[in-house]
Design goal:
InterPro entries: IS66_C (IPR039552), Transposase-related (IPR052344), Transposase_IS66_central (IPR004291). By secondary structure, the chain is an all-alpha fold. It has helices at about 1-15, 15-25, 35-45, 55-75, 80-95.
Length: about 100
């Protein structure tokens, strides 16, 4: 049991700066369970990514998944969020 306390103490000393940031900002969440749970469906289906056709296709899929999960995490409708972003991006390209 003493070894456990020594390990915890070493961890706290080695990560002191990060732990202090966490304590200073009330918006920080100590757990990353939300992020891990949101990507779980994609990690479970990663075998399917072999069929993206190319590294560029895989990168495009990852970008879309990232946008969808960001929308969900922010409480937004993913379809409307993607529609807004893609419509706005096309308008900016045309006017640029």
């Amino acid at each position: 049991m003493a070894h456990l306390y020594i390990s915890i103490h070493k961890y706290a000393i080695n990560h002191k700066e990060k732990l202090e940031k966490y304590l200073e900002d009330g918006n920080c969440v100590i757990s990353n369970n939300i992020a891990e749970n949101s990507i779980k469906p994609f990690t479970v289906g990663r075998k399917n990514w072999e069929f993206c056709g190319s590294p560029e296709g895989a990168k495009a899929s990852a970008s879309v998944y990232s946008l969808v999960e960001t929308a969900k995490a922010c409480g937004l409708n993913p379809y409307k969020y993607l529609e807004y972003i893609l419509t706005r991006r096309n308008r900016q390209r045309i006017s640029a």
